[in-house]
Structures are given as structure tokens and as C-alpha cells.
User: Fold these one by one.
Assistant:
Number 1:
Amino acid sequence: MDNINLSLRNLQMKDAIKSVRGMEILDSRGNPTVRVFVELADGTAVSASVPSGASTGENEAIELRDGDMGRYLGKGVLQAVSNVNAIIAPALLGMAASGQVAVDRRMLELDGTANKSKLGANAILGVSMAVARAAARSMGLPLYRYLGGSGARRIPVPAMNIINGGAHADNSVDIQEFMAVPVGAPSFGEGLRYIAETFHTLKKLLKARRLATSVGDEGGFAPNLESNEAVMEIIMAAIEKAGYSPGKDIAISLDSAASSFSPDLTSTYDLSRSGAGKMSTADLIAMGVEWVNKYPIVSWEDPLAEHDWEGFREFTRQVGGRVDVVGDDIFVTNTRYIARGIAEKTANSVLIKLNQIGTVSESIDAVRMCRDAGWRYFISHRSGETEDTFLADFAVAMDGGQLKTGSASRSERIAKYNRLLEIEQELGGAALYYW
Ligand code: PGA
Ligand code: ZN
């Protein structure tokens, strides 16, 4: 009875949560994912959709999949949806949407596990994102301003993934992502133009060499090049042919996603897809250092596998003064692993993926930990995405100046770029843009 009275009283608050409802939708790979609708007492009604990774870290929060082989090859998310509707929704009724931390903590309590395996990080994150969006809408604020405050005005420099390999493509390239970063552009809009033009020029160069111009999961081309280094060479050529200066206008960012070519989690790496064969941690570091000396690389994510903390640390020791060494699978947006990385100098930057940890407020905690340590952070999409643009606002709100959200193709990627163009226009002269 008391609970009902409390809920009724709270419903008089403008931003009291009135209803929460989940449904199963499809992501950009055609796999099921969760969308959550939230309604507030003042009539605000919004939704948010959850992304999904392919080269996932071992310690990521658990994405709940039904495992019913009769539906979507076992990938259905009806259980996660049911957890939203039957467990999370009644518990959040009457809570203030603006109380993001309280809402997220309530869901953590309901889940009760360390990795969100009971309710599913996909269920929890969908609600967490939708609640944030509802609070912003109810206050009449754009999401980036609600999450980032009145000073939020830095548009991130995009790292555009122009060649896909590894787990995101079926080609001969081991390294998962080769990204073009418009470090020398005067604004986000101009930077986006630089790299979109480079992407189109790259397509011409690939065509001229009779290589495939079909795209991978994140929208970059996925050609069968003769080696990983041949990718670097053709990207350099594309940047120049597009009229830009490599290193000055456009730099390179890489994501090896090295865990995916160290499947048995030993320090032997298998780069046989490209013909490079087996490599040790030391070989991989030597190759990385050589590339950093030879090419204008500004950041390198997961250069070693997630279990290879020592290799990571050694790579950082050798190139960390010049390059952002970014931990993705090794830190999984989790302050527990980020804290260890900071203490051990394992890297100097962190990739932030909301669904790796599973709530908006814990993602913000991870960002805060990076800032406090003087580490940089990249806000990132997943290889399975939706048309939701939450990420674009989140990146502006987090003020870190770096974002990974795919290529100049595939609408689920472009939607985020277009949202950033809108934000830049809205900010006008107040917008900041720098690497
Ligand atoms: P994922 O890849 O979304 O497939 O995990 C992205 C990344 O590794 O950064
Ligand atoms: Zn990664």
C-alpha cells in the first residue's frame, strides 16, 4: 500500500516514470536487439535502441540471447524484453527520470549479478538510455546538453573506419579497423568532408586495382589486399589523391582487435588470414613500432589481446608518448579493469562502449576515471548498430573529442554523423573542434 501511495505521489512530478516497455527489433546485421519506450508523467514519450558487438571482450556485461534455435538462429531477445516489461518496469514506476544514477542503481540491485547476466545488459542499457533521453526531453534540453551540462560544446573528431577486416569482414585482412582521422580540419563538418572524400577516393583506387568495393559491418571497404601493410599504403595514396596531407590534415587510427587473432588466449598471434603467419607478442610490438615510425598513426586500439597485459604495457612504454594506446576488449568500459590499467600503465586511453558495461551512469563513471588519470577516451559504436543517435549526443556530452562511429556508408553509421552536424549547427560559433 505504501509503495502504491509513494508511486502515486511521485507521479505528480513532471519527470516521474509512468511506463517502460521493451520490444524486439533488428540491428544493422539483421540480428535482434532491444528497443525500450519510456513515458513520463508529463506526457514525454521516447525510445532508445541497444547496439551489439561482434569482437566482444571476455569481460563485457552479458547480452542476453534466448538461445531458442527456432527463432533467429538462437539470437532472439524476447527474454531480455520480458525482463524489461515484467521486472524493470514495475520497479522504476514513479522514479524521477532525471535521477539517472538512482534509476541505474535500482536496475543493478534488481539484477544482482556482477555482469548483468540475470536481466541482461541489453535490457538494462535500453532502459538506461531511454530514461536519459526522456529526462532531457522533459526538460526541453538536447540530450548532449542534459548529459554534458551548459558547457558541452566540443564536437568529437571522428575516426572513420574506411577499411574493415578481422571479425567485421570476410577478407584477407587481420587488423579489424583502419580509420581516417581529420586531425587538421577546422570544424567537425569540414573534417567529415575530408574523410568522406577520402573514402570515395579510396573506392576509386580499389576499383582501379580490380579489388572489391563491397563494405563490411562498419561500412568500410573489405578488399582482399595482399597484406595488412598494403592497406596502409592504399589509404596513404587515397588521402593524397583526395588532396589532403597525411599526418597534417588526416591521420590514421587503427584497431587491431588482437584478441580475435589470438583465439586460444596465449601470446601467440595467428595472422594467417593475410599470410603474415604466426607472430609472438614481441613480433607484434615490433611491427607496431615500425608502423608508428613509418605512418602518421595517432591512435592504436587493442594492439595486443585482452589477456596480454604485459604486451600492452610494453607497447605503451615504446609508443605511448606519441600515440593514444586505446584499451577496448582489455578494459570493457569497466572501472575495475581501467583502474588496474592506470595503476600498471597498461595503456593511455580507453574505448567507451555503453553496452560493454550496460548503463549510462557507469559509462560516465568510466569516463570520469579516465579524466582523473589524464587518460584520453574514445566514445564508440558497436559493429551491430541501429538508427539510434544517442551516441552522438553522448560523445559531445563527454567532452573527450574522440569518436568512432563507422564509415561514410550504411545509414546506422551516417545517422550519428548527421546528428553531429546538427549539433554543430545548433552550437554555431560556440562549437569547439580539435584533436
Ligand atoms: P565490435 O567491434 O562492436 O564488433 O566489438 C568494435 C571494436 O572492436 O571496437
Ligand atoms: Zn575495438
Number 2:
Amino acid sequence: MTKRIGVLTSGGDCPGLNAAIRALGKAGQDAFGMELTGFMNGFRGLALDESIDLESSRLSGILTYGGTILGTSRDKPHRMQIDGETRDMTEACIATAQRHRLDAVVCIGGGGTQKNALRLKQAGLNVITLPKTIDNDIAMTDTSFGFDTAVGTATEAVDRLHSTASSHDRVIVVEIMGHRAGWLALTAGTAGGADVILIPEIPYDLDIIADAIKERSRRGKSFSIVAVAEGAMSRSQAQSKAGMNEPKQLTGHVGHTIELTGEIEERTGLESRLTILGHVQRGGTPSAADRVLATWLGTHCAQIIADGKYGVLLAVRGNELELVPLEKVAGKTKLVPPEHHLVTSARMVGTCFGD
Ligand code: F6P
């Protein structure tokens, strides 16, 4: 019997989504004779039954495109804004899947998507998730597609900021995405040789940062690059969050790096500038590594659907793909362990983490 598969992309977009849709569709259709329906704008399209038939012509020529041909949103099935009201659309999602006689729905997304997919699983839907995010913070998977491209983009930015910082003898603070986890700032900062890297997992002390920058000046390096994750926080901010019983990594604070840049200028006496990379990090064509990873995940997903295995995240573990039950993934965040080998290496080449 022909299997019918639904697919949606949910959460922030990232490079590689189209490569994954293409891989799932081509493998599903050509290797297993499946039919593929795409739902528009994340879980909203599933709830409202807004779909397109992903026939083979729609899958052609999209491998290298950034974004997602399906559109995306941060809508949650159980709390969706519909006509100005917040509604639980879980049953509507299930009804759509039944109407299309779907054997499974593939949800391509990040941390939030794992929780939403688990809710649908608990409501009786066959779901499989594929890991995508530039943040690299999905639990139980070594990596996710989108991350490699974003690392390349952010590293190139750090490289470019180096030459202007050194020409003007300035400190340049560069804000890098990552509101809970600092993987992107850590990796791009290390690749670009940032002098200071600040991540949410290692709360910083401004005096330590200023001392490190002043010490560089004393040694004749009158410029510095400070790579800051969106969610980085000072020790006192971390303490007050802990005091309020808030998870430490919950929020990226708007304006935080503006304030930080001012503080650094005041404490070091060096002219300082801020660059916020923002959504540039999410856009554009996927790197070769992300295209390959998305293709591997998409094609393997078709295989596990053919095998009738559902309710799992298709996770990358070393050189293998593993099926991890969604219960083990949902609601968890993969943070940078402060003793991670990359942190240790960066410290050994003189990078200051502000601690
Ligand atoms: O989760 C991916 C991410 O790009 C984060 O790094 C960033 O904090 C957030 O999304 C931004 O989300 P939005 O595009 O909805 O503002």
C-alpha cells in the first residue's frame, strides 16, 4: 500500500530545510513509492489544513536554496492564535492528518518543535522529527543542519571585523545568535580568533573582560574582538535569574550588547563599536556540509517511515543516525558544558571567557 507522508518546517528557518524536504520527498517517492504532502507555515498549516502536493517537480532545483519552500512559524498546536483567540488546535491537526490519510507527519524543527511533536504523538499522531537549528542546542543529537552554515557566516563576519578593528584600534563587540546555548558564538569565535567569547553557560565579570582587553593593549594589541552570544549574561544577572527561580538560559536580553559595549569602552578607555549579526546568520544558501547532513537525514527518514518506526527524533550520534524517543528530547536543551574541549582549547590560545 502506498504510504502517505506529511511534512512541515517549524520554528526559526535555517539553511538546509529545502535540502531535507527534497531528500525526504525524492527518497520517499523514488525508493518507496510514497506520496508527500507539505503543510504550510509550520503547525499552523497542519491545524488549518493548508497544504501543497509535493510532487517531484516541486522538489527539483531547491537543494541549494536557503529558507523553506513550505514557510515556517513558531505556532504551537495546543496554543495557536486563530482570529484573535488562543485555541487548542491539537485535534484539528489530528483531523487534518486523518483527512489526508497520512501514515506519518515529519516535523523538521528545533527545540520547540520537539515539544510540539511530542504533544501530537501523545494525541495519537505518528510523528518523526528531523533536527534543524543554527543554535545546535537540540538535546540527544550531536548536531543539526543549519549550524555549519551559520558558523561559516558568523566566522566570516568575525574575520571582516578583525581588519576594521585593527585599523582603528577599536574594540568590536559582535553579537551572535544563541539565546539559550552558546555553541554558535563559541565555534565562530574560536574559528575567527575572537579575543573574548561570552556565552550563556559561562557568566562573565566585566572587570575580567576589561582587564583582558587592557592587557592586550599593554602587549601592543590595541584592538580586540568580543564575540557575544545573544543570551550571555553577567554573574550578577545569572544570580538574579537563579534567585527568581528562572532557568538561567531562558532569555536573550534585548539591548544587552549595547550596554555591554558601552561598559567595555568606559572600563578600557578604548573606542568600542557593536555589530549585531542577527538574521544574516539564518539566511542564504546552505554549506556543503549542511546539504549533505540534510540529505542524509531526509533520505533516512523515508527509510524509517517505510519500516513503520514513529515517535522519534532522527538524531546524529557520531557517524550514525539513531532513533531517539521524543520523550527523551522534548523540553531539554543541549548546553555547552563549561569544560567542553572547545572551551579548553580556546582558553589555551588565550581567549578570555570573562570568568
Ligand atoms: O532558534 C534560532 C534563533 O535564530 C535563535 O538563535 C534566535 O535567538 C532566535 O531564533 C530568533 O528568533 P526570531 O527569528 O523568531 O526572532
